[in-house]
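Take a careful look at the protein record below. Let me know whether the structure tokens fit the sequence:
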Amino acid sequence: MAETAETAPDPSAPPAAEGGAPATVRVELVTVLADLPTQWDALAGPCIWHARGFLQALEASDCVGPGTGWAPCFLLAWRGDALAGALPLWLKTHSYGEYVFDWAWARAFQQHGERYYPKLLSAIPFTPSTGPRLMADSRDTGALLLGAVEAWLEGGEASSMHVLFPVEDELPLWQDAGYLLREGIQFHWQWRGETDFEALLMALTRDKRKHIRQERRRVRDAGVRFRVETGHSASRADWALMAACYARTYAEHHSTPYLNEDFFVRWAAACPEAQVLFIAEVDGEPVATSLCARQGDTLYGRYWGALAHIPCLHFEACYYQPLEWGIAHGIRRFEGGAQGEHKQARALEPVRTRSLHRIADPRFARAIEDFLRRERAGMADYAGSLTEHSAYRAGSGQAGTDLDPATSC
């Protein structure tokens, strides 16, 4: 049985898939991300959070790996020399950096003398973005990977398996395998035909429009000006600034930052097309940064930090600047990250997110299933209340049905 997140289970003899996966398919365990094969990116597709450059930057900068509670144990399915499927997995000894909160479940295990950690997790570290989790060329290949996870759970290698922010198409596969559904809410902006930020404002109600203009004016009146850099143009000093601002914000919340300067530099070097860095300056001196990630016509709001307190600067750096830049650069969807009802007043709308959970102990599984049933009912009430508080004027254009599932990557 695995005792810590430094020890990965052994999938060397996973159970056969139901219906019989081809005998030529074998499952390989990768515990060092530097060893991910060159075929990985082709299988993972365009999702920037699955790019080898991103994952290997996390590992090389010691943001994941030994001592972090994030031990990679990626499952790869090979058909001969071809990579036929993959399931990115982490063996976790805590629940930090996940954005789907299960601390109460861990406490319940502890109170009953059981261990919740280590647990298995399929998610992107420190990134609450929807995307593919089970990648396979056929249902049989996917079943083979799921069977390897099930063998780990049955063998006591982990208490549970958790799949965070999967794409909608994957839900039946996980639920058919006995995974419990959990729902959440994020706030995203979706393009409604706006040609510039002013057009966006005109689509909002008068009160919301007035409030945003007041917030932006306060930032301008404080002398703040922004410059925008990409992964191609940002300097080493810019990334040092980003890391310092990011760490400062965590320190103010008495927390330890997940990422470091080395990660930002390595990620930009490996995937320079992904980063959009907003740098706030007063009289030429930097005061704050906001880092977004771009994938095609989607922009993800990710990391922010400030060296000085300036009223409304957070909203300007994290929402208004990315939206203004995004509209000008063909962005059609902006994801504002986890949680935050305040985002709805700033042109982002609620969307549903999903996670799936497999608890090995049937006693805890029944209790958590009951909890999730009640939580989903409460979430439905909450979602209903959010739809009554849209920032948009009636008839201002339709970006999609409110609370449609998130469809990133």
